[in-house]
Amino acid sequence: MKSLIQTVVLVALSTTAAFASGWGTDWEAAKAQAKKENKPILINFTGTDWCGWCIKLEKEVFSKESFKEYAKDNLVLMEVDFPRKKEQSDELKAQNKKLDKEFKVEGYPTIYLVDAEGKKLSGDIGYREGGPDAYVAHLKSLLKK
What we know:
By secondary structure, the chain is of the alpha/beta class. The protein has a single domain (2-144), classed as Glutaredoxin (3-Layer(aba) Sandwich), CATH 3.40.30. Helix content is 54%, strand content 13%. It contains 6 helices and 4 strands, in the order H-E-H-E-H-H-E-H-E-H. The protein has a 4-stranded mixed sheet with strand order 1-3-2-4, sandwiched between helices. Helix 4 (65-74) packs parallel to helix 6 (131-144). The model is unreliable at 4-20 (pLDDT under 50). It comes from Haloferula helveola. Residues 10-144 form the Thioredoxin domain. This is Thioredoxin domain-containing protein. Residues 1-20 form the signal peptide.
C-alpha cells in the first residue's frame, strides 16, 4: 500500500512539474487542464532526440520567450514524444502509441490544436518558418476560425 501511495505521489508531482515547465506529457491531465482553464491544447507529436525538424522547431519557436508567453496565457501544451535514446515509462510509451494511432500521425513533427475533449480544431500545423512571432500569429488565426 505504501509503495502504491508513493507511486501515485510521484506521478502527480512529475505531471505537475511537466506542466509547470510548459509541456505536459499526461493526456488526461492536459484535457482536464484545458477544460478547467477553457484553453485549447497544442499537441506536439515529436521525436525530441532524433527528428531534425522537431529539434529545429523547438530551437526556433518553442524555446523562445515570445512563444512561451503566448502559450502560458492561451494554450495547454502537450508533448507526445517518441525518442530513441531517452527513457520513458511503459505507461507513457503506451499512451503515446495510442495517441499516435488515434491522431493518425504519419511523420514528425505533427502538431494540432485540439479542444478539451481531444477534437481537432486545426489540421497539422507542423514546422513553419518565421520564428515564434509568425508561429503565434498562425496559431491565433487558426483559433479565430
